[in-house]
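Open question from group meeting: does this chain pack into something compact, or does most of it stay loose? Before anyone orders reagents, we agreed to write out a predicted structure and look at it together. Recording both the input and the output here so the notebook holds the full record.
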Amino acid sequence: MNRTPVVFIHGAWLHALSWEAWAERFADRGFLALTPGWPGEAPTPRDTRLSPGPLAGLDLDTLTDHYAGIVRSLGVPPVIIGHSVGGLIAQRLVADDAGRAAVAIAPAPINQVPLPGAPVTARTPGGDGAAEPLMALSPEQFHQVLANTVTAEESDRLFERYAVPVPRRLLTDLGCDGAARSPLARVDTGNAVRGPLLLISGQEDLLVPDAVTRAVYKEYGDSTAVTDLKQFADRAHSLVVDAGWRFVADYVLGWLDEHGVRPLTETG
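Structure tokens returned:
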């Protein structure tokens, strides 16, 4: 018997450390929890903020290939759990039959699902704006648009613990500011033999609104593969790291169990 691997893929403006509580929770349940960072990401958020240069040229193609290589290198098909752009990648990988199941939390939109005008975009913030290859949020912006349902004190703590800059090139690939979305954001939603997929939204999310996730869910309407949607009321884009993270994580654990994805597998 081998432990079922779970690969966590973080999203924009958060470091891989943002999965620390989830990884511990899943490991305690018997899963093999893996939290690989983005290419060029330093070991800690603080180090990444101090020296973010290696992230500057990162695009969706490179990021997708990076995680595809990790997932396909494992002895057994893993569960893939992604947040934000990580949620988009999770959908693509499970649609390509690279994972046993996938969970996409507040995922960046796929295919032709539009992303409404966001409160923070690739042209924000100040200075010469788009000339800068990286976009960092200030603590105030982080609270305003990413952790908007928590107190300023909690938001500041989350910022210090997890926040990192994001490459503007990646935001462009995701279709921000009306840019042409990368072909890598296309997902085969009609795959009827893929593993089960759970989409999760926060109903107060300002970066990836609940309406966007619901529109993504409708994209899977013609597939007979399991596709579920869970909406969390009064939760923002920070729902994977803020004080309510455990409610989301435990829902995911229950959903996996319901669909026969257990901590131990005889495969491999």
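Observations to bring back to the group:
Residues 204 and 214 are 13 Å apart (CA to CA).
Residues 245-258 form the longest helix (14 residues).
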